[in-house]
């Protein structure tokens, strides 16, 4: 019997299952490995996507429909990431429709009237929690839900390369996923569809629209960043979007700090003043054993690998562990490159780039034992080299690339690495370079320190975390403005 109206059902009575569709082969973009297994920001695209649903409060269970030749790879990702909501990894079919039917078969044991199912492309790894929540909410009133965004381009219809129609753009939307359904609704639509010899559909909402035309399909507002990795350029764009992602870093309370930092060992290079001192003070106040190293206080030269190794060994010998390593040490030298003497150039390269390299190499064995994190610092100038900042900008760009590369290298070892990108911050280093600046025009070192500790306690890896005066602490944006020089 056709459905003629939405039938409200209390959302609390429903169980929501997310079906992640990961059956692609990667051949469309010339890859030997499925694109959902490519790594971005230290994790495979599939892991990023599954983690989103793992963290979604209103999703109860996750099923992965995987390319049949890579089921074991997906299972290894689930185990390694500790994704407890993923109950099964199943082989997908040879088409989108066949894969959906296999998923429906796997859900046959669930009550059809009180089960919601969300179908989501595995290669949309930047889905927001807001979209998921809106979909589940909408399924309390509607039997089918799509996600879409307005079309910013004019869409044309053509026949043999000749325009035949130009639809009104205001009525057009670009479809995304997830697509959500009451289980009974999508199951019924597919039963009818398979009876049609000409059945073919590119998505599941079109199946409901065609074979259950009386069911209204509600549209939830999507987001531009919820892109699908389909073409080679999408891999590059997705990588940049992760770097500039708008998802918020978890913010922890003082009680959380006390629980998570008690008994931890924190090593801070550049810990005598500024941001480094702020991080050290905050961690120490909440029960961590903090080891501060700097050239002035401990005669530790971060550009010297032996000094770095000795500092980490000292901390480990004293406490038996190293959980977090933070490097805020840096030098800011301003001036034309052709007017800069070789000694200044060497110093800038050693302190601003080689030091993070040495610290990363020396810290890794300790952090691998504890599943810890290395935290580095960049500047808004990393996105574009500017006159008289050539050394500083280029070394800070290198630090960002180092962060992303090591997140990939270390992902299987359980070691995280992130990079803080503070807006112009009130620190002694900045004062030495620029003198006194107007009150209120600079970010406080304390705010950067607080965000730094939040990142240390988070599960993030491979992120550039932008800290601004006007944003909530921990916005993972990394979207620097051209007029700022994020010197610490």
Biggest sheet layout: 7 strands, mixed
Provide the helix percentage: 25-40%
CATH homologous superfamily (4th level) name of the largest domain: Spore Coat Polysaccharide Biosynthesis Protein SpsA, Chain A
Number of domains: 2
Query: Into which percentage range does the β-strand content fall?
Result: 15-25%
CATH fold-type name of the largest domain: Spore Coat Polysaccharide Biosynthesis Protein SpsA, Chain A
Poorly predicted tracts of residues: 1-12, 471-488
Tally of extended strands? 19
Shape: elongated
Integer-rounded radius of gyration: 26 Å
Write down the overall mean pLDDT.
86
SS element count, helices: 15
N/C terminus separation: 67 Å
Instruction: Based on the coordinates given, report the CATH architecture of the largest domain.
Output: Alpha-Beta Complex
CATH class of the largest domain: Alpha Beta
Largest sheet strand order: 5-4-1-6-10-7-11
Structural class: alpha/beta
Task: Describe the protein.
This protein has 15 helices and 19 strands. It has about 500 residues and is of the alpha/beta class. It folds into 2 domains: about 10-230, Alpha-Beta Complex (Spore Coat Polysaccharide Biosynthesis Protein SpsA, Chain A), CATH 3.90.550; about 255-465, Rossmann fold. The strands form 5 sheets. It has a 7-stranded mixed sheet, with helices on both faces. A 6-stranded parallel sheet has the order 13-12-14-15-16-19, with helices on both faces. A hairpin with a 2-residue loop joins strand 8 and strand 9 (about 160-165). The longest helix is centred in the C-terminal third of the chain and has 29 residues, at about 340-370. The protein starts with 14 loop residues before the first strand and ends in a 21-residue tail after the last strand. It holds the Pfam family adh_short. Belongs to the IspD/TarI cytidylyltransferase family. IspD subfamily. This is 2-C-methyl-D-erythritol 4-phosphate cytidylyltransferase. Catalyzes the formation of 4-diphosphocytidyl-2-C-methyl-D-erythritol from CTP and 2-C-methyl-D-erythritol 4-phosphate (MEP).
């Amino acid at each position: 019997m056709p459905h003629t109206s939405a039938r409200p059902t209390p959302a609390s009575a429903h169980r929501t299952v997310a079906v992640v569709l990961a059956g692609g082969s990667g051949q469309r973009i010339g890859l030997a490995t499925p694109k959902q297994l490519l790594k971005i920001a230290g994790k495979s695209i599939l892991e990023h996507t599954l983690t989103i649903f793992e963290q979604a409060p209103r999703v109860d269970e996750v099923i992965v429909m995987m390319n049949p030749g890579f089921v074991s790879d997906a299972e290894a990702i689930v185990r390694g990431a500790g994704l407890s909501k993923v109950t099964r990894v199943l082989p997908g079919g040879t088409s989108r429709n066949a894969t959906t039917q296999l998923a429906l078969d796997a859900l046959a044991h669930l009550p059809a009237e009180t089960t919601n199912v969300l179908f989501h492309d595995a290669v949309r790894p930047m889905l927001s929690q807001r979209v998921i929540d809106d979909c589940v909410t909408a399924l309390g009133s509607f039997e089918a839900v799509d996600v879409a965004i307005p079309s910013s381009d004019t869409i044309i219809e053509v026949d043999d390369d000749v325009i035949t129609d130009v639809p009104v753009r205001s009525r057009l939307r670009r479809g995304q996923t997830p697509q959500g359904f009451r289980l009974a609704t999508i199951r019924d639509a597919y039963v009818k569809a398979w009876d049609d010899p000409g059945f073919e559909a590119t998505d599941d909402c079109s199946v409901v629209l065609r074979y259950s035309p009386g069911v209204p399909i509600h549209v939830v507002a999507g987001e531009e960043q919820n892109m699908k990795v389909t073409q080679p350029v999408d891999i590059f764009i997705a990588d940049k979007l992760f770097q500039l992602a708008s998802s918020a870093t978890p913010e922890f309370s003082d009680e959380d700090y006390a629980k998570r930092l008690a008994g931890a060992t924190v090593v801070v290079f550049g810990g005598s003043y500024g941001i480094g001192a702020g991080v050290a003070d905050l961690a120490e106040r909440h029960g961590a054993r903090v080891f501060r190293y700097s050239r002035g206080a401990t005669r530790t030269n971060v550009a010297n690998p032996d000094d770095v190794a000795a500092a980490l060994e000292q901390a480990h010998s004293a406490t038996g562990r190293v959980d977090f390593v933070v490097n805020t040490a840096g030098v800011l030298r301003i001036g034309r490159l052709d007017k800069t003497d070789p000694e200044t150039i060497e110093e800038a390269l050693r302190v601003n780039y080689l030091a993070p390299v040495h610290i990363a190499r020396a810290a890794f064995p300790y952090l691998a034992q504890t599943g810890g994190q290395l935290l580095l610092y960049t500047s808004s100038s990393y996105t574009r080299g500017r006159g008289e900042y050539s050394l500083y900008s280029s070394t800070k760009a290198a630090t960002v690339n180092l962060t992303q590369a090591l997140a990939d290298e270390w992902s299987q070892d359980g070691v995280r690495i992130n990079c803080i990108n503070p807006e112009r911050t009130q620190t002694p280093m900045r004062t030495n370079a620029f003198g006194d600046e107007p009150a209120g025009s600079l970010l406080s070192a304390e705010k950067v320190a607080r965000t730094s500790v939040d990142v240390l306690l988070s599960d993030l890896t491979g992120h550039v975390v932008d800290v601004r005066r006007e944003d909530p602490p921990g916005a993972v944006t990394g979207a620097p403005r051209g007029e700022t020089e994020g010197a610490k």
